[in-house]
Every structure is written in C-alpha cells, then in structure tokens.
Amino acid sequence: MSTDTTGRRSDATRAAILEAARRRFAAEGFAKATIRAIAADAEIDPSMVMRYYGSKDGLFAAAVDIDLRLPDLGAADPETLGEVLLQHFLDLWEHPANGGTLLTLLRSAVTDEATAVRFRRVFGEQVAPAVLRFAEPADAERRAGLVASQLLGLALCRHVLRLPPVVAMSQAQLVADVGPVIQRYLSSPPASC
Fold first, then answer.
1. Residue 110: what pLDDT?
2. Please, what are the domains in the chain?
C-alpha cells in the first residue's frame, strides 16, 4: 500500500474520530463521554483513538479547538463595532460547523475546570486582543470581559437554556437589541467609580 493511501486513510480515521467526539461531547459533556463510546460511533477500535489523540483530554482539546475568526474590527465603522461583533458571533453559533463545538465548550465549561481553562484561553488569545485595539491597555481586559459576558450569556440563553423569547428572536432583532450594549462596552468612557 502506498504512503499516500495510508495517509488518506489516516486522515479519514482522524476526521471520523473528531466528528464522533464532537457529537458525543456535545450530547453528553466531557465527563460522561467515553473513549469506548466515541470509538463505537466512529466504528473503530478504542486503541485507535488513543493512538491518534493520546488521551480523552487530548481528544477533547482537538475536538473543541476553535478559531473565532474575528472580523477586522479596525476596518469597521467605529459606531457599529458592537453590531459587527455580535453578528459575527451569531453567525458562528448558528453555523453547524462551529455551533456544535462552541456549544460543547459552553456546556462543558460550566462543570469542568479544564474546559473552563480552554474557554479562558480562547478569550485571552482571541477576544481580548481584538478589544485592545479600541481601549486603553489598562481598561481593555475589563471591556473584553464585559463583551464576553454578554456574548456568552446570550449563547447560554439561546442555545443551552433555550429561553423561548430569546430563541424566537431573529438575528436582526438580537443585533438591534444587544449590539448597542456591546458597543457601549467597547466605546463608552471609563466609569469613574
């Protein structure tokens, strides 16, 4: 068998494992999902999961690795930054390829400290630097934290708790109602407390 054929089969096996892991972690969370169940879903032997990912933690890290692909906020109208950022996050959450990964992270972060650490890493490496472009360095972390609280709170209510009035809102309604709040977090003068 050629190396090319072996490489393609290896890539296909990895992809099948990751897809099965994403589904299983999304449905059951990190703690309940097992390597055996994930392997069964991928129709492979559990030893193959360990071969490719080393451990359940390694598999989870690969399954929830996410690049938020934040838009270039420097190119946006400064008066609409909140709307642009919110629309981007709504698109991420509601796109099947990303939404499942984000949902898995959100659900698991509530009960698993290792997942919460991953969430904080995504925040620190992707969200905070984007906000830093619009805020004084001493105030950027606070502002980024407020933006994240709004975005994650909305995701929790819409996709995990599934609060009927929040689920019923269109993306345009959410952007109109919540975008200005995020805009305020990004651009208002610092409070003098």
1. 82
2. 3-63 (1.10.10.60), 73-187 (no CATH)
